[in-house]
Design a protein that fits this description.
The protein has 359 residues and is an alpha/beta fold. The chain has helices at 52-55, 59-73, 81-90, 96-113, 118-121, 140-152, 166-179, 196-208, 225-234, 248-256, 267-270, 273-285, 299-311, 323-326, and strands at residues 3-20, 25-38, 43-48, 128-130, 133-135, 157-161, 185-189, 215-217, 239-241, 262-265, 289-293, 316-320, 332-334, 337-339, 342-344, 353-356. Helices cover 40% and strands 24% of the residues. The strands form four sheets. It has an eight-stranded parallel sheet. Strands 1-2-3 form a three-stranded antiparallel sheet. It has a three-stranded antiparallel sheet with strand order 4-15-14, covered by helices on one side. The chain starts with a strand and ends with a strand. The structure holds magnesium ion.
């Protein structure tokens, strides 16, 4: 299981529709795929996406970080898995998206060598999940149309991107809710776009209009833990931390202060599978449930997140792994199957990826 070759490949896949949040607009999914081969002939796949607005990592910085990390792990034996993972994390400061890509490929190989699917190696058994879908931030009519379309495609949970002018956001949600079946669940993501006072006014307005909101995600700036506490003290609508929690220590700090109700785990924020599992375990200690989400990433890394969801299905109760279904095509064959709202883990070894499709 000695690491022999490592290759990096940048792929671009067009999106079905532009993806818009309070932080950015994206028209195609650009992902960086890592292919690691061992002397014994195993091939592991990793992936990350440059989400500069959230992680501060660009395509160039990720490729540079991968160069450094890969230089350090080349020739290492994966029989010494934990030590090699230590090398990955000590090779360079931060650069969590790059580290995540490496971790995913190494876990893929490690599970393949044991002839088991990754989720089973991690102690999971569940293979079928439902994901919600994100509705991009647009003018109200477009958002209503997109929401109806998502509902008609079988999505029971919609995550509405907000964080624009909060008064317009109130109007957006009122109109969207009117257009949907009563049972469609609404999660709202303000992507740090409001002040704490605006958020409280927004949430009060939702209660006044009797619009059931499952949760509000990251309403205020990532470092504003006091702001989250302020909101939590004034509204019964649960708060989900996203940008506020990158690392396991971020999770400890925010949960210790009792500032949020849920934590959104993303591999690209936390540095990969090992820290994602650790964050879920920390949340379990505090009795806090998690969402597992993704950036605009491809089927390899989002698939790896689905394996993590299976491994910690008692704590990770919400999946927001919609990126592969927002794309027109996929750059890989095999692996986790993403079909509408349904996610199905394959019983192939590791991540079960067959290979990369020609681009
Ligand atoms: Mg978010």
């Amino acid at each position: 299981m000695d690491i022999k070759d490592i290759a990096v490949k940048v792929t671009k896949v067009p999106l079905k529709k532009p993806f818009k949040t309070a932080l950015r607009s994206v028209y195609e999914l650009e992902s960086i795929i890592l292919i690691i081969k061992t002397k014994s002939g195993l091939v592991g796949y990793g992936e990350t996406a440059p989400t500069f607005a959230v992680t501060g990592e660009s395509k160039e910085s990720i490729i540079k970080a991968l160069d450094t990390i890969c230089e350090n792990i080349k020739g290492e034996s994966l029989y010494d898995f934990n030590r090699v993972m230590g090398v990955v994390h000590s090779s360079i400061e931060k650069n969590f998206s790059a580290k995540s890509a490496v971790e995913i490929a190494l876990y893929d190989i490690f599970a393949q060598n044991l002839k088991t699917p990754l989720y089973r190696l991690l102690g999971g058994s569940r293979r079928d999940f439902k994901t919600g879908i994100t509705i991009s931030l647009n003018d109200i009519d477009t958002m209503i149309q997109d929401s109806i379309e998502a509902q008609n495609r079988g999505f029971e949970s919609l995550k509405i991107k907000l964080g624009d002018d909060y008064r317009e956001d109130i109007q957006r949600v009122i109109e969207i809710k009117k257009a949907l079946h009563v049972e469609t669940s609404l999660k709202l993501d303000a992507n740090q776009g409001w002040s704490k006072e605006e958020c409280v006014e927004f949430l009060n307005s939702m209660e006044k209009h009797q619009i059931p909101i499952e949760l509000i995600e990251q309403p205020v700036k990532k470092g504003d833990i006091e702001g989250l506490k302020y909101i939590k003290a004034r509204s019964s609508i649960p708060i989900l931390a996203d940008e506020s929690v990158f690392s396991p220590m971020d999770a400890v700090k925010i949960l210790e202060k009792g500032a949020v109700d849920f934590v959104n785990i993303k591999l690209d924020k936390c540095g990969g599978i090992s820290n994602a599992l650790l964050i879920a375990d920390i949340c379990k200690l505090y009795g806090t449930k998690c969402m597992i989400g993704c950036m605009l990433e491809g089927a390899i890394s989002v698939g790896a997140a689905a394996h993590v969801a299976s491994a910690r299905s008692d704590t990770i109760t919400m999946l927001d792994l919609d990126a592969p279904i927002l794309c027109k095509t996929s750059s890989v064959s095999g692996g986790v199957k993403f079909s509408g709202a349904n996610i199905e883990l394959s019983d192939g070894y590791g991540l079960g990826i067959g290979g990369l499709k020609p681009t």
